[in-house]
Every structure is written in C-alpha cells, then in structure tokens.
C-alpha cells in the first residue's frame, strides 16, 4: 500500500468516525471468512458496516474526532462495526458475539462518549431508530382510533336497539 492509498484510507476512516452514531471495536482473531461474511451481511441488513483497518492508520484517522477515546482499544486484530443509527452496530456486534466466542467486543464510542463492554451491551438493548418511530406513530394514532370508536359506539348501540324493537314488533 503506497502513501496515497494510506492517505485515502485515513480520510475514509475519518469520515466513518465523524458520521457514525456508534462505533464498536472488537477482536476477530480466529474467525473464518464465512463467519466474517456473515457478520458483514448482518451489519448491512441492519444499516451498518464492518471494516478491518490497520490500527496505526485508524489511530491517525481518530485524531481530533469526537470518538478519539477509542484509540486505546486499537491493538491486535481489530474490526470496526459502525452505523449512523446509534444502536444498529451495537446490536449486530452483541448478537454476533453471543454466537461466536472468537469475536470479542472490546468497547466503542457513541459520539464523544466512550463505551466499555457493558456500555456496548447497554446500547445494544436500546430500541433502534425504526422501533422508536413506530412506537411514537402508534402512540399518535391510538387517541384518534379511541375517539373514532367512542363516536361510532352510540350509533351501533342505537342500531342494535332498533333491530331488537323491530324483531319484537314483528313477533
């Protein structure tokens, strides 16, 4: 890798560190290619990405970024799992770590906040952006459906009373 390619990689990593809602740093020593592809596919499905980068270049890219505190985690064979959604990457990494002993979460960052292993686990248990939006939409729609039900109820009651009276009159 020549100097220009290294500079380009540092720029790409810098953009990742700036634009990501969460970055999770993990060790991946011993993972097979198939397992790594599985991790990448799960991250892609959740709206995130997985990136293996040289630690030295990643540390250079971290300089002056909000998540600069994760530089200490970049030792050994590390992989970065990241997403714009502040929860997606943590959920993917946590789920993958449960099923694979070779994938070890070291920590991460959420904006300027450094996360330890317990912090990444706590973030992974939070609802995702889509889940929050659907919950809020459900809460907004519930009062309207309750009002519609309350307004429509007397009419249905009157209709059933009228049909009962009609049946009695016919008999």
Task: Describe this protein with a few key phrases.
structural constituent of ribosome, Alpha-Beta Plaits, five-stranded antiparallel β-sheet, alpha+beta, 171 residues, 5 strands, 16% strand, 2 domains
Describe the model.
InterPro entries: Ribosomal_uL10 (IPR001790), Ribosomal_uL10-like_sf (IPR043141), Ribosomal_uL10_bac (IPR022973), Ribosomal_uL10_bac_type (IPR047865), Ribosomal_uL10_CS_bac (IPR002363). One of its GO terms (molecular function) is large ribosomal subunit rRNA binding. One of its GO terms (biological process) is translation. One of its GO terms (cellular component) is large ribosomal subunit. With 171 residues, the protein is an alpha+beta fold. It has two domains: 3-126, Ribosomal protein L10, N-terminal RNA-binding domain (Alpha-Beta Plaits, 2-Layer Sandwich), CATH 3.30.70.1730; 127-171. 58% of the residues lie in helices and 16% in strands. The protein is built from six helices and five strands. Strands 2-3-1-4-5 form a five-stranded antiparallel sheet, with helices on both faces. The chain starts with a helix and ends with a helix. The mean pLDDT is 85.
